Amino acid sequence: MKEFTHIDEKGRAKMVDVTDKGETKREAIAYGQIKLKDSTLERIKNGQIEKGAVLETARVAGIMGVKKTAELIPMCHPLLITGIDIKFEFENATTLGIYATVRTTGKTGVEMEAFTGVSIAALTVYDMCKAVDKDMVIKNIKLLKKTGGKSGTYVRENGE
Amino acid sequence: MKEFTHIDEKGRAKMVDVTDKGETKREAIAYGQIKLKDSTLERIKNGQIEKGAVLETARVAGIMGVKKTAELIPMCHPLLITGIDIKFEFENATTLGIYATVRTTGKTGVEMEAFTGVSIAALTVYDMCKAVDKDMVIKNIKLLKKTGGKSGTYVRENGE
Amino acid sequence: MKEFTHIDEKGRAKMVDVTDKGETKREAIAYGQIKLKDSTLERIKNGQIEKGAVLETARVAGIMGVKKTAELIPMCHPLLITGIDIKFEFENATTLGIYATVRTTGKTGVEMEAFTGVSIAALTVYDMCKAVDKDMVIKNIKLLKKTGGKSGTYVRENGE
Amino acid sequence: MKEFTHIDEKGRAKMVDVTDKGETKREAIAYGQIKLKDSTLERIKNGQIEKGAVLETARVAGIMGVKKTAELIPMCHPLLITGIDIKFEFENATTLGIYATVRTTGKTGVEMEAFTGVSIAALTVYDMCKAVDKDMVIKNIKLLKKTGGKSGTYVRENGE
Amino acid sequence: MKEFTHIDEKGRAKMVDVTDKGETKREAIAYGQIKLKDSTLERIKNGQIEKGAVLETARVAGIMGVKKTAELIPMCHPLLITGIDIKFEFENATTLGIYATVRTTGKTGVEMEAFTGVSIAALTVYDMCKAVDKDMVIKNIKLLKKTGGKSGTYVRENGE
Amino acid sequence: MKEFTHIDEKGRAKMVDVTDKGETKREAIAYGQIKLKDSTLERIKNGQIEKGAVLETARVAGIMGVKKTAELIPMCHPLLITGIDIKFEFENATTLGIYATVRTTGKTGVEMEAFTGVSIAALTVYDMCKAVDKDMVIKNIKLLKKTGGKSGTYVRENGE
Fold this sequence. Notes:
The structure is a homohexamer of 160-residue chains.
Chain A: E1 24-35, H1 38-46, H2 48-67, H3 69-72, E2 81-92, E3 95-106, H4 111-129, E4 137-147, E5 154-155
Antiparallel strand pairs in A: 1-3, 1-4, 2-3, 4-5
């Protein structure tokens, strides 16, 4: 049976020792959604100016958030991130999709970094739009894919 | 029609000027869920030791995350947070609920702080358990309630 | 003769005690320039897409930098910034102007915050363009105006 | 024609992917000036006590600022800085020169780190002296030299 | 019987709610010692140049550390610190004393800020000298005095 | 005679250049104590709920503090920490011992990281308990062991 690697033998949290692991090339892609009123999404989508500001600000925030992961998540190892890409997709009239791809060469994976990128980008979209829409919901933040490392490749199967 | 307060007249992001707003007592409650395998939740829930570590670590991370909100969300105003409470609820065999209540006396509301608390707590639960469950999904992060300030009280109506 | 307020009687650095100062409404406007190759500025200026990215990223970085001032400048007092606005101006074929306006109600002024906003925005422009132009120069960072506080209003006179 | 490496094909900011670049030894030297009243510079220069405090505080701030570069500049890659040196030079009666030398072994260069070191050191000098001189100007922040990496050595030619 | 104010009714950590507390003027003085080899202290003490560097660097670090308290100590409330003073005393041939005085007007006290100032200054002295002395010991960090707030004045009685 | 490696030839602080040092596996163990009233320690120790909260919060804070070392101690090099473990020991009726073990593979040692972990954990215990005990003293923070690097293994001999 797999073990919780962040819990030591007495149930105390610790940062897993990865000193002896080798460095491998790693990538993780996380995804999430924000559900908004259609009028809010319309204003982001069609208003060329506003769109630039909302999504561009959220993208910058997400990228900077990725770099703060080890500072935010207690047991995360610091890593030298070598690539970050945050993308938005208008999925339907009320749903904005967010994708964060993170890459590194290191001893541990970057899924938490990708998750953090999606989360901070989503929170920033909420913040930019909350004056006109307080009902937004951040949904379905999940790992899409993960490569590199001893545990090998993970690809989420269809649906949730 | 309401305006995007973080976008100036030319569509450029700016931090809204609240210099002349009065200080009022404010509270916000945000909520979110993590969906896990029942075996993962069972290990968190029944294992007295592990539960302490996972949820306690997530609680501390969430509280510290609340205090970092203005550093993470570009247009957020810094605030002197005066109270933070993060609670977990085992909603069913595969769902963990997270509640963050944040209070301050200040010129702007604390909904982003409450959202950030829920998000960082959720990411920490993911991080603590990801060795045994990579399929977890963070869901339905939303504002439950907000009081104080000129815009008055917001209470989310039933359902989403 | 005026005294260096950050230096105590024995020449040691300290954070000036402002405990007994009253809170007043304060504003500071700082300014700076970046000198670039005309081809670089042209690419920022005319390329609608690139322009959005370079200046929008620099604006977000500048706003976030303002909020980090007390963390960067050792003797600066933490302040609850209530408004930040960063503007860019194409001054001539090779010069980009940057203006940062910062507001607060507090016990000390916000000129360092405005300076930090200009500096971080300028560094970000440099970073975004350095692949095509390593000769850029950041120039003439200075205080344009300062209001509020016991020392009263400061307005820079013409020229330097 | 060279491309803006931080802008992706649709004009969106991203952190350039350097995963596959090799690690090389790198150094960058940046430079800048502060123009002060001669009486201000005299007080820094001749007052043995004050000089220690102003320049030593600025040096420490500059070194700590270098280490914060990837947190301040959105698209900068985190790097394990292996050496930082900040030097001051009294260039003439009203001009203080600042040099920052930064070294690492890594996948990207350290010019932004050197620029940040000069900028934060300059801002700190301004902060330490602003009670006696609000007219100071930070000038001519530029890259003097850069070695290592695929793009090879850059040395600024005489003058600007 | 007094209660642990950071522990809620079920033993879970939370940030104590101080929303309804009034703001009062507050001060705290913390103290600590470093025990070094006499040759190490001699080098700090007599070497005019080195002394400047070691203690001045430690003082700047301590002041910056004070401002980071709420980021380091999970349940600490953020405060607008209004004054910080770090002093060193050569107590005897092998002992360096450190005093941190912190002031604010706020809803909670600043003893943790004063403690953090002493601790970070002490760690910095250790770091600056560890190449010549690995046996240093940081000792007797304690609260000397605390004024302001509902709990009134605390003054440590003689000795420990 | 050994030299202060953080002080350059003119007595100015600098970050030691380790660019050309090789990477070796490194470990450091630091230790410290808190002296509390026996009633305070009893409440931490026997109260199953409170114990979880106090020590678990302190452990998380200590681990996160380790990762902030290079941000807190001016001349410390950033390192990719690969393992952190914080342990508490009830030494006697009034003394809590704290051990921090830190590991990395890098160019410089991790003793400052271990010291920072002990210090932040101790400060957090103080913060959690200060409502019931203001007389606590943090004592005897020292290096127990250090391995790796050119200077070889250090083991503290018996006693102080």
